[in-house]
Every structure is written in structure tokens, then in C-alpha cells.
Amino acid sequence: MVFSSLYFLFLYLPVVLLAYYVTPLKWRNAVLLLFNLIFYGWGEPKYILIMFASIAIDYTHGMLVTRCKAKGNDRGARMAVASSVIFNLALLFFFKYWDFLAQSLAAVGLPFMPVLNIRLPIGISFYTFQTMSYTIDVYRGDARCQRNVITFSTFVTLFPQLIAGPIIKYKDLDDQLEHRTHSPEQFASGVQVFVVGLAKKVLLANNLGMLWDAYKAMPVSELTTAGAWLGIVAFSLQLYFDFSGYSDMAIGLGRMLGFEFIPNFNYPYISKSITEFWRRWHMSLGTWFREYLYIPLGGNRVSKPRLLFNLLVVWAATGIWHGASWNFLIWGLYFAVLLIVEKFFLLQYLKRLPAALQHLYALFFVLVSWAIFAVEDFSHMGAYLGAMFGMAQGGLADPAFGYYLRSYGLTLLVGCVASLPLGAGLWRRLRERPRLVLLPILVLAGLLFSTAYLVDATYNPFLYFRF
Fold first, then answer.
1. Which residues form a coiled coil (predicted)?
2. N or C: which terminus of the chain carries fewer CB neighbours within 10 A?
């Protein structure tokens, strides 16, 4: 089940909210846990067993870490943390990377690993990271051990951010799991954020996705330079509105239930460098890798060769986290190289350039990165990148480019404007009374238009669903 579906909007969500708010406070986590499991098991009930295993391992290991530390047995505590990390990574490796590795080895003449055709459990990349960080934080003293298994299970299975983030660390929700507050103002704010995310996903991402699909499926012989750039601009906006829209919906749902989640995007396409881009894009993932991989490796307080190694490891991991395919690893290393170059010398020169040139620099390299990210087949990727740089077999432009530009021009323009903080700035400048009048009208319009689209449309992909 996804948030941008009629079943979720008009069946699951109303039932959850009604049951949640008629339940006494002390039982609300138990009720929420039940609905979390229904949400996760909607499409694949058997994978609930995997989630139960993850909950059991990290719950018991958190207890074990606490017990060892209380007895002064730091070695035992570290072994418990290591055991938890190994289990979570093994779980993620088996379901996400086994077949990828088996097929890669077979391709080079080493077919000793069987291809199992394993179906990827929804959201496994997100919830394994969340549960793994819990045990580490208990060991570090950054989070207390949760002894109530219902409360801990509610954290792991929390449906608003279960399948696509933001990646929430236990220490960020510890107090909220047991002492969260509820108010009409908070609920109303949640509805507003949710509808904004829904509109971004349904009205913008879905429509832009159809343009990208047309260019991705286009034969190499027909691809033009202008068309390749138009397609990748469409994909860049689709991915942003798809993922940030889903994050907004998650944050909005959390507020409806009394939770406050961390933001996941902060207008990344206004960045003036790649370094700034990654401070604004998928911020919860960047924070996770910084806290649990980059800093433990030594961070930037090491020699230059070791710093290069640390950055390469972190960005290789960031790339492969996104998917079991070589293009994701290349995509991660592509950013590693750009960030290393910026860190060692380029940033100081970039800052001397006019702001417009800084923006163009960042946007250019980000758009190139999305071509690597989006096209998994190497031969097609090479042809697509070549087309972007003037080596298109179809020439500079063709009638199809003009047709798609006319058909999607308005949607692209709206998407470009909506990816900037202009709207938010104008909204803040309005006086309070006009805002009070306009807000419910805009929220209702967003819900109605999104619903109308979902009723009529058959195209409703979710790009991060597979992660």
C-alpha cells in the first residue's frame, strides 16, 4: 500500500485515525502497532516475519548491551553491538544483494552462487538502518534501552515512514513514543503538509514521469541531444517530487499521530555546489552515514589519504544502498569524486564566481548524475550520456522534442518553480487573514485534484518503493 492510493486515502487512513483517537492514551502504541503491521503486510504478509525477526534481534541486543554495560563488561557490550550490526547487514545483503552478486559473478565465469530470484521486502533498506542505529546508540549512551517490546515494535514498524523514510533514529523518537502530545493545531498542520506532499507526488511527479518514460524507452537511433536533456530534466523533477512528496506525506501523517519527524529535503536544486546539494537532498540518509560510518572511520580528522578512503567508502555505500545494480555504485563514486575535488580545492574558487554560475555548475553535474542513476543498462546509459553531450544519433532536435515540449512545457515550468522556495517565500509575506482564508481552500483543492487524478489514472509509480 502506498500513500498516493485511494485505498489508503479513503479506507485505511480514516480507520486508523478513528481507532487511534478513540483509544485511551496508554493503549495507542498497541493500536498503532496493529495498524502498522496491517499496512506493511497489505501486499506481502509473509515479509512481516522478517520484520518480526529484525525487531526481536535489536530489542534483545539492546537489552544485552545495557546489561553488559551495567556489569562493566564493555567487551560483551561491543560484541552485542557487532552481532546486531552483522545480523542487520546480513538481512539486507541476502534480500537485496544476493541475486545481484550471484548474477555478477556468473557473468565473469564464477557461477558458484545460485540465483534465488528473491523478491525485495518493501522498505528493508530503511528499517534495517533504523533498528541497527538503535543498538549502536544504546551502546554509545545516546539512547536509553527500551524495555517495552510494544513501544519498540511501534518504532520499528511506524507506518508513516516505514517504507520510504525519512530514516528516523530511535533517539529522535524516544520521548515521543511514550509522551507525545496531540492538538487540533498539530493535526491540522499534519493535514496541510500531507496534502502538499500528495499533490507533489500525484500532480507533478506522475505527470513528469510519463515524459521521462517516453525518453527512457526511446530507441538510441531516435534520441536527440535536446530530447536527452529534456528527458533528464523531467526525471530530475519527477524524482524530487516523488521522494520529497512522499517524505512530506510521512511528516504530515506523523503530525496527525502526534509525532514530529525530521525534514528530508530543503530545496536541493537551489544549491551552489555538490557539497551543498548533499546537505539538502535526502538529509536523513546523509546524517545516518555521517554518524554511523563516516565519523567511526575517522571523519575528516585523519590524513589526506585516509580521508580519500573514508569518502570513497561512504559514497560507495551511499550508491549501493540505493539499489543492487552497478549503475548505483558508479553514481555514488561519481559524487565521491566531485565532493573530493570540491573539498580539496574547488570550493574556494567556486565561491568567487557569481551566484548564477555556481547554481549552473551544481545543476549541470546533478543532472548528469541522474542519467547514471536512472539508466541501469550500461550500453543504454552510455548512449544516453553521449546524446546529452552532442553525440546523439538523432541529431540536435527532432519533431518529437517539439511535441513533448509543447505537451509538457507547462508541467515542467510549474515543476521548476515549485522546486524553488519562491512559493514558500510569497506565502510567508501574506498577512495572517488572507492566509487563514486561502489555506483551507488550497488544501481542499489539492486533495480534490489529486483524488480526481487517482480515480482516472493508471500511472502511479513510486520510485523509492524498491529501496
1. none
2. N
What are the distances in angstroms from CA 266 to CA 156, 308, 380? 25, 27, 32
pLDDT tens, 20-68? 999 998 999 999 999 999 998 886 788 888 889 999 999 999 999 999 9
Instruction: Specify the pTM.
Output: 0.93
Which alpha helices (H) appear in 141-224, and where do they start and end?
149-157, 170-179, 184-199, 206-216
* Annotation marks residue 322 as catalytic: yes
Catalytic residue among 61, 182, 322, 380: 322
DSSP for 360-410 reads HHHHHHHHHHHHHHH--SHHHHHHHHHHHTT--TT-S--HHHHHHHHHHHH
Greatest Cα pair distance in the chain: 75
Place of cell 519498540: 152
| Amino acid letter, 46 | K
Of the chain, the percentage scoring pLDDT greater than 70 comes to 98
Q: What is the pLDDT of residues 325-374, one digit of tens each?
A: 999 999 999 999 999 999 998 988 999 999 999 999 999 999 999 999 99
Residue for grid cell 491540522: 188
